[in-house]
Amino acid sequence: MSAPADPRRSRVAADREVCVGAGQCVLTAPEVFDQDEDDGRVVLLDDRPEGERAESARRAVWLCPSHALSVVP
Amino acid sequence: MTSSTDRAPAMPFPPPRTCPLHQPPEYDRLRTEEPVARAAMPHGGEAWLITRYEDVRAVLADPRFSSDRRKPGFPRIHPAVIAAQDHGVPARPNMIGLDGAEHAANRRPVLSEFTVKRVRAMRPRIQAIVDEHIDAMLAAGSPADLVTSLSLPVPSLVICELLGVPYADHEFFQSCTAELLSFSTTGGGRADAMNRMLAYMDRLCAAKEADPGDDLLGRVITKQRTAGDGTDDHEHLVGLAVILLVAGHETTANVISLGTAALLNDPALAAPLRSGTGSTPALVEELVRYFSITGAVTSRAATEDTTIGGTPIRAGEGVVALVPAANHDPDAFDSPDRIDPERGSRHHLGFGYGVHQCLGQNLARLELEIVFDTLFRRIPTLRLDAPLDTLPFKDDAAIYGLNELPVAW
Fold first, then answer.
1. Is B307 helix (H, G, I), strand (E, B) or coil?
2. Does the CA dihedral B332-B333-B337-B339 come out positive or negative?
């Protein structure tokens, strides 16, 4: 039997093909997202953020201008 | 059944401002009464004006709305659109006017130059540039024109050093930029300014191709040679250089000038800067929202039939996603006509939205933060040297701003 899902825990996904490198995610949730040094596109640092990190990750998903980020329940 | 003859006469665009620091009041009426409205464009034809935050965000995120000015229906607001639609100029648009894969191919090579980390590493150099210019202002003594002594030179120098463009040529490219953005420069004057800018960048890029140095243009050349077939895409490089130089100095300069005017006009707003309390990044975000200087630059042409805010938009119709109206939508920002750094305004659309969102936004944020912090800390007695409503605001340009800002201390 699996443990009940923690509602404050969620899986974050980033689509590097859609990313336009605006950097909104790094400004909003620097512990969850970074930008690749070579191509400037999104890099996931933590795909299962918890607590406050999950909150900022959700905000970053909403702010992302190219809709490259998503939260998978 | 509706046809264009059944519609009420379209209102003329743009509507006038009644106060230079406020958006045209007509935007508030439209947002409430007619959030998707027909308007007559200044150079012929009609387009839809979109004024609600959610609707503007939706249009700018939707790939069915094209940024290609050559497309039929693209709102005829700026002479650049007339040149593109009627004369096919420029033949190869830069990233601002491209869609989809072509846009991505143009934007991607420079993304790594503008990441949050790369920009933060520029802080010491930007601080030094700002300090040097304030030293010079203080040495020359009160009064001064802030536009020529600080607003224009700081971002111009920063973008020149980044690109590898000689700053000694700033008078040349600043005057070209002013002509390119003006609503009054039409036909020959505009083509002339564009040709001079292209010829200048053509020579500069050729020199860099012969000897790529450690600057943005040099790095793009080297990257292209490594990734591609070894040949240079000269035309692409020239287009890229022009757009980065123009977008890199004029926009930030205007927010420095308008922001300083607003701060000097309201002592309570400037107090946290003078005392070194309060968050300057939050103030910067709020000033970018409040002024929304890019006006109608975020125009689009529908390429498919669609619906915005319940109103059907047909393929081939133009749409003006009015960021200034969206950024003053009370559904997105409480008391939107007040400058309130505490509100948390990061969701504003002042840098645009969608795949074209400002490439240099983090550089702009940092430059603005350093300029406002340093200016008010080092010259706490700074004041306007002329009544606000007599200042020369740029009512005649695609990017709002100030031509001069007389200050004293």
1. strand
2. negative
**Single-letter amino acid, residue B348:** H
B94 touches chain A (CB under 8 A): no
**Is A58 contained in some domain?**
yes
Taking the CA of residue B62 and the nearest CA in chain A, the distance in Å comes to 9
Q: Which domain holds residue A37?
A: 11-72
B204: CB partners within 8 A, 6+ apart: B165, B217, B241
Closest to B322 (Cα-Cα) out of B364, B354, B293 = B293
**Domains with residue ranges and CATH for chain B:** 11-408 (1.10.630.10)
- Report yes or no on A3 lying in a domain: no
ipTM over 0.90: yes
User: Running DSSP on this structure, what letter comes out for residue A6?
Assistant: P
B163: tokens are: 């690109």
The C-alpha atoms of residue B404 and residue B387 are separated, in whole angstroms, by: 13
Q: How many domains, in total, are found in chain A?
A: 1
pLDDT digits (tens, 9 = 90+) for B255-311: 999 999 999 999 999 999 999 998 999 999 999 999 999 999 999 999 999 999 999
DSSP letter string, B33-92: H-SEEEEE-TTSSEEEEE-SHHHHHHHHH-TTEE--TTSTT----SHHHHHHHHH--SSS
Give B-chain residues touching A69 at CB under 8 angstroms.
none
| Subunit contact B347:A27, Cβ cutoff 8 A | no
CATH number of the domain bearing residue A68? 3.30.70.20
Does residue B229 carry a pLDDT above 80? Answer: no
CA-to-CA distance for B319 and A16, rounded, in angstroms?
29
The model's pLDDT over B136-175, given as tens digits with 9 standing for 90+, comes to 999 999 999 999 999 999 999 999 999 999 999 999 999 9
> At residue B313, does pLDDT exceed 90?
yes
DSSP state of A22: -
Closest-CA residue of chain A to B114? A40
Residue B125 CA to residue B202 CA, distance in Å, equals: 28
